[in-house]
């Protein structure tokens, strides 16, 4: 049975939730030390802060970012889309703060 929502507090937990295809990932606090992440189709990522030293969050299809801060270095992209996906569906942003490029 696939979990529909999980709370993560560190980079390994975030990677595990993404790999498992969790429908809603809730970030608690600030997560650092994660490489760039790609959200699976239909995934919501919300809460807390993700701080990257390289690219940030890559969106796929029908993704939602809500109540989250995403930080990268000024010359990297904080949020970007997967250009190999022919149809990104609906990408929703609600109360998202980014530092870096979008």
The total of beta strands comes to 10
Helix content: under 10%
Distance between the termini: 35 Å
Overall outline: globular
Radius of gyration: 12 Å
Largest sheet: 7 strands, parallel
Note the beta-strand portion: 35-45%
Q: Could you tell me the mean pLDDT?
A: 94
Which runs of at least 5 residues are low in confidence (pLDDT < 50)? none
**Sheet/helix structural class:** mainly beta
Helical stretch count?
A: 1
Total discrete domains: 1
Instruction: Summarize the helix and strand pattern as letters.
Output: EHEEEEEEEEE
Gist of the model:
The protein is mostly beta strands. 9% of the residues lie in helices and 40% in strands.
Provide key terms for this protein.
102 residues, mainly beta, 7-stranded parallel β-sheet, 1 helix, 10 strands, 40% strand
């Amino acid at each position: 049975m696939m979990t529909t929502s999980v709370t993560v507090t560190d980079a390994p937990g975030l990677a595990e939730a993404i790999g498992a295809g969790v429908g809603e990932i809730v970030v608690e606090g600030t997560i650092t030390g994660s490489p760039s992440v790609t959200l699976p189709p239909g995934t919501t990522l919300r809460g807390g802060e993700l701080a990257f030293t390289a690219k940030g969050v890559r969106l796929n299809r029908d993704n939602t970012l809500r109540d989250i801060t995403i930080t990268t270095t000024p010359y990297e992209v904080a949020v970007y889309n997967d250009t190999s996906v022919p149809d990104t569906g609906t990408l929703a942003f609600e109360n998202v703060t980014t530092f870096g490029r979008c």
